[in-house]
User: What shape does this take?
Amino acid sequence: MNIENTQSQMRKGVLEFCILSIIQREEAYPSDIIEEMKKAHLNILEGTLYPLLTRLKNADLLAYRWVESSGGPPRKYFSLTEKGAAFYKELENTWREMSDSVERVIGNKKESNLPAEGRAVEKVGGVEEEGDIQQLPEQSTNTEPSSTDVNIHPTTDQA
Assistant: This one.
């Protein structure tokens, strides 16, 4: 299996969300988006960004405005539309749920898997058996991912 291909596919899966995240904070010029992505070790090429921005604009998720520039041609600044803001919120909720789930798997976090009646189901010799379980005190869970929850460090500029 090709690790670079897998890494590229993982990056593509979060690229749109990251770009929308940057734009939802404030309107953004494409080179500013590229710079912020580079700072986060998510290198993106203009040839990848511009078609993505166009697709998001055509889906009515983004709008843009032209701003005159003293040092060259006018600049196109992107912002979220109302539809784009709602779409972003859904993506953000999905990301938080998914990143928490993935962290539970790769970080070996334990999650209670109890049926409503407080009984555990366990497979013993291929047969499911129910039994009483002892409940542990509830622990506070923080659903906000920290900056260390998910680290993406691509080694190439492929997108």
Summary: The longest strand covers residues 62-67.
